[in-house]
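Comment thread on ticket #2218

A.B. wrote:
> Attaching the input chain for the structure job we discussed in standup.
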Amino acid sequence: MAESRPAPRPAAVALAYGAGDPAPRVVAKGEGWLAEAIIAAARGAGVPVHEAPGLAPALLRIELDQAIPPALFVAVAEVLAHLARLDRLARPLPGLQEAP
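C.D. wrote:
> Ran it. Output below, let me know if you need it in another format.
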């Protein structure tokens, strides 16, 4: 008989990166219902949400309001670059008008 495993708990980490910040910092994090609330709040505010199951556990270990460590710079930069590409694709091209 196959061993049943509990469903993985959802996890969420919110990052912020300001002009004076040396690196993105963790501004919210949680698992379970708190993760679901963080995700819902982000979507409600129009903040992009990206699933990165391999990155979330590492980010969850960072204290709130702390910058991400250099070891995670490349992984976080890849996620941010992906989100930036999606943002550019979502915007209409300059000079194009929508069809009537």
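A.B. wrote:
> Thanks. Noting for the ticket: The first helix runs from residue 33 to 44.
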